[in-house]
Every structure is written in C-alpha cells, then in structure tokens.
Amino acid sequence: MRSRTAIWFECKVRYEKTMEDGMPKKVVEIYTVDALSFSEAEERIMEEMSSYVSGEIDIVDLKIAQYKEIFFADSDLADKWYKAKLAFITLDEKTDKEKKTSVFYLVNAGNINSAIKNIDEVMGGTMIDYQTLNVSETNIMDVFEYKQKEKEDKPEYEQQ
Prior knowledge:
This protein is an alpha+beta fold. It has helices at 38-50, 112-123, and strands spanning 2-5, 8-18, 24-34, 57-64, 69-72, 80-92, 97-109, 129-137, 140-144. Strands 1-5-7-6-8 form a 5-stranded mixed sheet, with helices on one face. It has a 4-stranded mixed sheet with strand order 4-2-3-9. It is elongated.
C-alpha cells in the first residue's frame, strides 16, 4: 500500500467506446487526475485519454475532488475505487470533550472488505485515532498520477 497526497480533480469524459459486441457507443466515464489547476487537469485528462481513445473526447464535468489523499493497492485484483469517510478523533484540552473531524479518502481495492483492510493498513501506521464512518464504491474508472516528462536533450545556450 502506498498513499499519495495532491490536488485531485474528478473529470467526467464522454467518448465513443467500442463495446464487447463490437458496436460503438457514447459513454461518460469518471477519471481522477492530479493537477494544480482546472486548465492543467483538462490538459492532463485529454493527454491521458488520447492514448486510449481514437476519436472525439469531450470533458462534460471537471471538479476538485473531496479527497486530498489516495491509497493505492499493490494487488492486480484491486480494480475498483472506494470513497472512504473517516473521522479523526481529537481531545479538546479546554473542554475535555472529543472532537471529530471528517476527512475523505479514495481507496483502491478489489472489494469493500479489501478497501477497509487497506484503510486500516495505511492508518494503522499513524498515531491518529480514527473511525471509519462510510466506505462506498465509486464510478471512477482510473486514477492518473502526475508523471514528470523527460527533458529533451537540448543544448544549453552559451553566454558570450
């Protein structure tokens, strides 16, 4: 398990997909990308999808995701994405009352039990007291992390 914190954008993408029966069909799918701005997110999703789609691609919705951190599973069986709502429990020293702060995560797993196990695996390595309030399957098809592009071999200009 590994986790990654970033600004994540959920992108709804419409394109023509070839179905199992060989017939083309317009579909709308949700993907997640990390980016610093809406324009970068749009550019990144278009770039990522262009290698999978050979036709017109439309972005029908683009929004900042509720989650800032994603837990990535190491298993090939982890083909689904789950949204998890956790409550961090802190103690207010002035009033001696427990305070709960809700935080959302996106978790990669094969099923809901694996998602809960993955949450416990990542959060178990922290000192934070937490409760898992909700885990639900999402319609997210894939997550595209930022990859630094390789620099082209350009000669540096000499100063004269």
